[in-house]
Amino acid sequence: MAIDLRDPDDSYVSFWRERHMCTLTTPRQDGSPHVVPVGVTYDPEGGGKGIARVITNKHSRKVANVLAAGPEGARVAVCQVAEGRWATLEGRAVIRTEPEAVADAVARYAERYGRTPAPNPDRVVIEITLTRAMGRA
Description:
Layout: E1 2-3, H1 10-15, E2 22-27, E3 33-38, E4 41-43, E5 51-57, H2 61-68, E6 74-82, E7 85-96, H3 99-113, E8 123-136
Antiparallel strand pairs: 1-8, 2-3, 2-6, 4-5, 5-8, 6-7, 7-8
């Protein structure tokens, strides 16, 4: 079921605020999908159509996959499932390294997941400017 990115319903936004593990799918060099478990935060008002964020280590395969796509970013998807409810966000991902962007993403993660990650000087943000949302929340 398609979700209006400019006006997602309250149950969809609420589902993205609950504590759920998610998956991130990035494209490998050969085009095959690389799927890994991650924590995701969703800002439905960011960037006009929404932004999703994943904090991670700059040396991870997912970061390498995004960087390999070039300056326009990689087409990616994040997804979460809880019993009969599900939600997927798709968009263009770029890597953000600015300390303010990383601190903001860590704060959002701490709010959603109820814990602040340990400091990590190699932490970066996979920032996804959304182009599509789907789900049943």
